[in-house]
Design goal:
mainly alpha; 3 strands; about 50% helix
Amino acid sequence: MELVASEVAKILYILQMFHLGKYGKPLFHANFEAWDFGLVEPNLYKKLKGAGADNIPRWYSSLEDTISRDDPDYEFIENLTNVLLEKSPSFLVNYVHDSKSAWKKVYKKGEKNIPITNEDIRGEYARR
């Protein structure tokens, strides 16, 4: 399965949200923001924006290339990512844009660069 950049961002966001909610700490360093069409992690966006709506190379082909199986987060990442990769793009959009989402809480039409803080993300986990 290949993904477009916006799907990768949503999957990473959901991984971050569940990790913050379950373990109280971020899984990775990220600065998610609320933009008109959804949440964005600007550093990821800069790297992947050239792909546009085209598929990007499979980013999850080998988790071992990124994190050791001995890492305590390995199983968490593998299990949740496998579940999310089975979901449709519309599911991912609806999930991160629904009334419980941190994006919905902070979004202001026409504005970019509105931070979605880890506190906002943890609050979304709690609301769900």
